[in-house]
Amino acid sequence: MKTTLIALVIVPLLVLSFISLPAKKTIVFFGDSITEQGAKQGGYIKVLEKMLQDKGLDKSYDLIGAGISANKVYDLYLRMEDDVLAKSPDAVVIWIGVNDVWHKRTSGTGTDADKFVKFYNAIIKKLQAKNCTVYLCTPAAIGEKTDYTNELDGDLNKYAALIRNIAKANNCTLIDLRQLFLNYNLKNNPENKDRGILTTDGVHLNEKGNAAVADEMYRVLSQSFLK
Amino acid sequence: MKTTLIALVIVPLLVLSFISLPAKKTIVFFGDSITEQGAKQGGYIKVLEKMLQDKGLDKSYDLIGAGISANKVYDLYLRMEDDVLAKSPDAVVIWIGVNDVWHKRTSGTGTDADKFVKFYNAIIKKLQAKNCTVYLCTPAAIGEKTDYTNELDGDLNKYAALIRNIAKANNCTLIDLRQLFLNYNLKNNPENKDRGILTTDGVHLNEKGNAAVADEMYRVLSQSFLK
Amino acid sequence: MKTTLIALVIVPLLVLSFISLPAKKTIVFFGDSITEQGAKQGGYIKVLEKMLQDKGLDKSYDLIGAGISANKVYDLYLRMEDDVLAKSPDAVVIWIGVNDVWHKRTSGTGTDADKFVKFYNAIIKKLQAKNCTVYLCTPAAIGEKTDYTNELDGDLNKYAALIRNIAKANNCTLIDLRQLFLNYNLKNNPENKDRGILTTDGVHLNEKGNAAVADEMYRVLSQSFLK
Amino acid sequence: MKTTLIALVIVPLLVLSFISLPAKKTIVFFGDSITEQGAKQGGYIKVLEKMLQDKGLDKSYDLIGAGISANKVYDLYLRMEDDVLAKSPDAVVIWIGVNDVWHKRTSGTGTDADKFVKFYNAIIKKLQAKNCTVYLCTPAAIGEKTDYTNELDGDLNKYAALIRNIAKANNCTLIDLRQLFLNYNLKNNPENKDRGILTTDGVHLNEKGNAAVADEMYRVLSQSFLK
For residue C128, what are the CA distances in angstroms to A58, B19, C75, C122, C163? Predict the structure, then answer.
């Protein structure tokens, strides 16, 4: 009698539970202070979580912020085992580059272009070896002026171009935040301000910036990864 | 008898000579290594001299090169008495700015924007006090790529913008070489090369560069100064 | 009657007042943020004022702080008319150099050694032309470690050496704060700390630093200027 | 009969040959342009080879230069598999650090102190995992002045101190070239020249510099590795 119950009721339930509860997928957001703030109240990762909730997808995805202030590509390389691979992520969204450019000016320790490419490639190789889907973001802005007079625009554009090439070479999907921010500012920054449109200080996201980044990430991720 | 000769022959000759030989006007070209090279064989100042010759104006104008390699606005300020005012110039064409930006990267001794403006203004004031007509050039290029990925494009654009404002504020005519080079490259640099279009190395002029600069300077000077 | 009173009483008093009240002498302290802080509560200029009071000399000397944060030699040159010469000083104590070195690292806009010397000389010439007695201070410290491992020690020593030469060349008395700080730290900083001995942050003076600077300035000024 | 010959003559010869011909030991010299030049005619590695020859040790040791111009610790890390581990070295002499400091000034891409330590440690760990004996050199000089006025002395001393700590932490033998050069210059550079004592240009070795480095390396290696 008991055995029958188990056979008739519990086993099917168990089977069902396995069908209806697939393993959650983990997405790690790997970056610098922009991503560190993105994991806090109002940050772009929090906005993404809310978007997933609204779609009823929050049970299926775990979003993990792995941003540390002042990080360059070297730092990501050094801490990727502990902060990314240890989470067994299914996808990793890498957003790095601002400090690789900025630190040239502020501390003399920016990143050579050749080393930027080599260490970025090394990170991707290690992630892909673990079957992670890797997304690459271009650095959005250091200053929001639209006439290319932000002091570091040239170098930032150069590193954005490097990242576009790295994405191609490694078959990674690109999330082109640099292009997104430039386009948005061309429309919405008629006074050519250096901050206050999508950022608070030219670099870190304000509310509109967090929304714009979350929207773009959702758009790209939903084409390939989110279902 | 003698007196008659003087009256009849020499005096008219002297009068004629004053009519046919007005004082030559002096134009000093004041700048950095680009101008230093501009005064050499094939340089833009030599091309300008040839243009004046072709128009029969070479007797009327003295062109003096006063360019010294590695100069920034500070250097111009320090040597303007000896190298410019001592020549009693009627016009001065100032072309500075590349090293003010470049030295930030290569030696940590570039020029702060506020100091660039203040010393530039001080130079102009001193020249105008001597009744010089002052022309300001924007820095043409550090790299000839057209997609704003030359490493220092942002800062160079910023200093070009500063110079446009300085020109306005001091009623100086602008010779906008930055704009000229950008426009030329957009048409003639389809492969987005960083050198070899108007420059040999991204900064210093090749033959076409010297011709383009001489043409533009002639165009602007002839509107206001050359007759 | 009234006239007699004036003649007998007031006139002698007036004469006396001119005898007993020689014109106060003015000393301007010309520098950067260290001097800006030096003019505030507890700052080295305030300590010097107290020392003059204690010696009954405060009626004879006016101490004026003319320090502005982030200043380099260029800034002193640009504002010396307004901030120094306009005060008709009898003596000027110049303390500059930290930012000329530091800004090479933090913003790429430090001061070339040759320009440092030329602008410093130009400042001294203008002051001496007005019969000012000029005192030169060497920059005290960027970091207080005693084993020459403060990041900018080499360059700071180089600029201190430049200032010692400038003082000699212009017959200015030197106030060698760099040497003073090194000697003091060799005795009092056995743990090789980078701050907290004479400074709060490696650069700006703490209480002991303000006392040490005031003592040294008093010592040097009293040999030649204070009576 | 034939078998007897083999037994009596050839076998003992073979045995002898194994006794008298132990495997050669390989030492890789891993570094920047100083080491790249060290492997050329007159370079310190060539001097070391000559010293081994003179001692009759050249049959026992293979010296391999693995220096590449402009290398920083990052570059060593990136190319250590191909250029060092692929040679199966018994010992590796690492000499790096000059560009990690210098590039802060000349290109804004020097190495942060924390990254210098982390990547250096990572290199050592990988080498020690292959049973290599690892020797660490401190960077000798950027400028030979003895009064600590070489522009980058402070930072170079700081990185030399980092390397001394890295050696201790990883049980590596230190070859303290910084100390060697300072001591030598204090004795032999009375005029406080910035080059020409042990270097041609303040950084790269002249004949005396190559001899001094070879001597010191021989001294240290012979205490622990060479027999």
Answer: 76, 50, 19, 10, 17
Nearest CB to B150 within list A147, A151, A154: A154
Residue C116 clears pLDDT 90, i.e. is over it: yes
Q: Six-digit token pair at B162? A: 């500063």
* Other CB atoms within 10 Å distance of the CB of residue B182: 21
Chain D residues with CB under 8 Å of A118 CB are 78
Give the distance from residue A109's alpha carbon to the nearest chain B alpha carbon, in angstroms: 11
C174 pLDDT band, cuts 50/70/90, is: very high
* Residue B109: DSSP 8-state: B
The tens digit of pLDDT for each residue in C4-31 reads 655 665 555 555 555 555 689 999 999 9
CA nearest to C108 within chain A: A105
The span from the CA of C28 to the CA of C47, in Å, is 15
Q: What is the mean pLDDT of residues D8-30?
A: 69
Q: Which residues of B touch C74 (CB under 8 A)?
A: 74, 112, 115, 119
pLDDT in tens, A50-79: 999 999 999 999 999 999 999 999 999 999
Q: How wide is the angle at C-alpha B124 spanned by C-alphas B121 and B127, nearest 5°? A: 155
- Give the list of residues 6+ apart from residue C107 with CB closer than 8 angstroms, or none: A105, A106, B104, B112
Distance of CA B192 to CAs A94, A155, B145, D31, Å? 28, 15, 5, 36
- Nearest-by-CA chain B residue for C77: B119
Query: pTM for this structure?
Result: 0.90
Question: Which alpha helices (DSSP H) does chain D contain, by range?
Answer: 2-5, 11-20, 33-38, 44-54, 73-83, 98-106, 113-129, 153-169, 177-188, 207-224
- List CB contacts (< 8 A) between B107 and chain A: none
Cβ neighbour number for residue D117 with a 10 Å cutoff: 18
Instruction: Name which of B75, B112, B152 to mutate to probe chain C: the one with the most chain C Cβ atoms within 10 A of its Cβ.
Output: B112
pLDDT, residue A52, reads 96
Give B158→chain C minimum CA distance, Å: 15
